[in-house]
Automatic annotation (TrEMBL):
Keywords: Flavoprotein, FMN, Lyase, Prenyltransferase, Transferase. Belongs to the UbiX/PAD1 family. Flavin prenyltransferase that catalyzes the synthesis of the prenylated FMN cofactor (prenyl-FMN) for 4-hydroxy-3-polyprenylbenzoic acid decarboxylase UbiD. The prenyltransferase is metal-independent and links a dimethylallyl moiety from dimethylallyl monophosphate (DMAP) to the flavin N5 and C6 atoms of FMN. GO terms for molecular function: carboxy-lyase activity; flavin prenyltransferase activity. Dimethylallyl phosphate binds at Y167, K183. The gene is ubiX. It comes from Halalkalibacter akibai (strain ATCC 43226 / DSM 21942 / CIP 109018 / JCM 9157 / 1139). This is Flavin prenyltransferase UbiX.
Length: 202
């Protein structure tokens, strides 16, 4: 772990499908020596088990296996730890992303519920005028989902649906994941080389 982080980001991973997106994004931020505040919901751990085939009985071991080899500074927070620094607007960071973002979490943010640390931190980002990126992974979308997306967008959040592109001619699942994670990093103003951009040589 390094004490001289390039910047600070908060990352939330919820129980929506697509946990690999959140994992890959955190890994890339840590690889580039950023400080990351990570919040996982209980449903996120269930998705880790179902989609990533991880034994979630030892959560500390999972976090070490997923993120321990990178140079950045990782801080994990319990979902109801309202004493965490990220719960206050006085704590400076470069932005927050929830990837993937469940419809339940989206609803909590859209209504200003602040029912847990994830929602509270998102509310802080909005009130302080800082970057807040939400990556929903749901289909189809009903009117409530769409109205909540519009509501958060109107107050400053960016909605980045988990829709991979194909113009870079992906050859593997990793290519599809890296494309979406790369788009998320673009929204956070973090440089990367995770995919070939339109017009670049393949």
């Amino acid at each position: 772990m390094t004490s001289k982080a390039k910047g600070i980001y908060t990352v939330g991973i919820t129980g929506a499908s697509g946990a690999i997106y959140g994992v890959r994004l955190v890994q890339e931020l840590l690889r580039q020596s950023y400080k990351v505040h990570l919040i996982l919901t209980e449903a996120a751990w269930r998705v880790f088990q179902e989609e990533l085939l991880l034994d979630t009985s030892n959560r500390e071991r999972i976090l070490e296996d997923l993120f321990g080899e990178f140079n950045g500074e990782l801080h994990t927070h319990h979902l109801h730890d309202y004493g965490a620094p990220i719960a206050s607007g006085s704590y400076q960071n470069n932005g927050m992303i929830i990837i993937p973002c469940s419809m339940g979490t989206l609803s909590g943010i859209a209504t200003g519920a602040s029912g847990n640390l994830l929602e509270r931190t998102a509310d802080v980002m909005l009130k302080e005028g800082r970057k807040l990126i939400l990556v929903p992974r749901e289909t189809p979308l009903n009117q409530i989902h769409l109205e909540n997306m519009l509501r958060v967008t109107k107050v400053g959040a960016k909605v980045l649906p988990a829709m991979p592109g194909f113009y870079h001619l992906p050859k593997s699942l990793d290519d599809l994941v890296n494309f979406l994670v790369g788009k998320a990093l673009d929204s956070l103003d973090v440089e990367h080389e995770l995919f070939t951009r339109w017009g670049e040589k393949r």
